[in-house]
Amino acid sequence: MIESLLLKLRKRDVVSPDEEQALRDLITEVEDIPARKTVVRRGEPLNRSILLIEGLMCRQKDLRSGDRQITALHVAGDFLDLHGFTLKQLDHDVMALSPCRVAYARHDLLTRLTEVHPHLTRLLWFSTNLDAAMHREWELSLGQRTGAARAAHLFCEVYTRLQIVGRLDDEAYALPMNQSELGECLGLTVVHTNRVLRELRELGFVQFTRGRVVIEDIEGLKAYAEFDPTYLYLDSTPR
Amino acid sequence: MIESLLLKLRKRDVVSPDEEQALRDLITEVEDIPARKTVVRRGEPLNRSILLIEGLMCRQKDLRSGDRQITALHVAGDFLDLHGFTLKQLDHDVMALSPCRVAYARHDLLTRLTEVHPHLTRLLWFSTNLDAAMHREWELSLGQRTGAARAAHLFCEVYTRLQIVGRLDDEAYALPMNQSELGECLGLTVVHTNRVLRELRELGFVQFTRGRVVIEDIEGLKAYAEFDPTYLYLDSTPR
DNA sequence: CGTTATATTGAAGTGCGTCAAAAAGTGTGG
DNA sequence: CCACACTTTTTGACGCACTTCAATATAACG
């Protein structure tokens, strides 16, 4: 159940059998979530954090005009709102993009964990810092990259993250969202998102059709996006 | 020396005298940094984190074209790279925008702190999560707000953050950067930044001249920017 | 099979970038 | 105090990336 989480963490540091057990003990109830359901609403008090076991979720903020920005994507093995453990409420919504399976980690157990497992605590802390690193890369994309490069970069990032947790299907993967939602990740309208996707397709880099990404030329795509995975911290270092 | 940090933390939770002392013991050497100096370079191994005592610093990422994005601003009381404690190296540079005074917190002492002070650890964890919340709000700005609203929002955010640490000078404050650097925060060119500033001035909201922000109508500015400080977590809650 | 969501294309408009130059401010040395 | 060089701000003209509005095509679904 926490296998993807372990894959993710062990890519970055050693997790002892003891710590693995502590994580297993942390996770209680499992639940299935339908697509499009909001699982955490901004401002609501939190007493547990959610681990994504299967599916695709996102964090989003919106303006009064209704314009939305998706600020993060989450794949299997990610905590959706571990930051909520110290923040106690979120500044944004968390929504399922596909049908998902999640598990819950109660905050009182997490508090206990911080008192008993300092190294594991630092690892969980690391994992929220990793989210922040991705936010920064998205800021760079939104502020400086062209629409096409932004899309290309996103495809590279998700490719890399899914690879870690074994969700790549050869050179393709599931990205269950429509072009409108993809546009909300990229800060583009649906119409322009569609044009940008055509460009990437015509360049022979990648195809995105009905929630599925097929990579045709990963090296070309990475070069085009200036994708440098440093910000994903893929080295195993004592944290 | 850590007074601004204490103001910042105590705005969000209780810091016991014991914990205050632990923080004081954490901070060793103090140093003065000249403007424009890069204090942390991406990729370099870190064994300490930096607390900003006085001045303005930023985090920045760039593309090969030379286009830069400033992903965060830091004021007195902020840790510049506390995330570096668990990341062990940064994915971006940290640079002084003005002459600054900083103090250092060694990572071995921080590790020790996590083993002895779980609640304080959670508070420091919180503070990195707060940085992430600001990153998300900037993503919303960069992705969805117009240039003028983005600038207005930034002025509101810094106004609020400086207020907490007592650096407001009536309805004005120091923001020691030029229009080019402001543009790099906003994802705009200098030229357009200049036009956006004129617009905000003509609307009677705010003036930005030679590194100084003079707020003329804070309520108007907040409304214009749709500034909602929820994401700054200004309530005192047990973390 | 009809209904609704999603994708695609076209045409026209706009926010912001680019290029270029002038104006204003700042710092330094004489 | 001025002279000079340099940085920063400001403005104008023009171009482009992206948006908006609108219509059609295609896929998904009960």
UniProtKB/TrEMBL annotation, chains A, B:
Name of the protein: Crp/Fnr family transcriptional regulator
Record Pfam families: cNMP_binding, HTH_Crp_2
Superkingdom classification of source: Bacteria
UniProt keyword list: DNA-binding, Transcription, Transcription regulation
Residue stretches making up the HTH crp-type domain: 145-219
InterPro entries per the UniProt record, alphabetical: cNMP-bd_dom (IPR000595), cNMP-bd_dom_sf (IPR018490), HTH_CRP (IPR012318), RmlC-like_jellyroll (IPR014710), WH-like_DNA-bd_sf (IPR036388), WH_DNA-bd_sf (IPR036390)
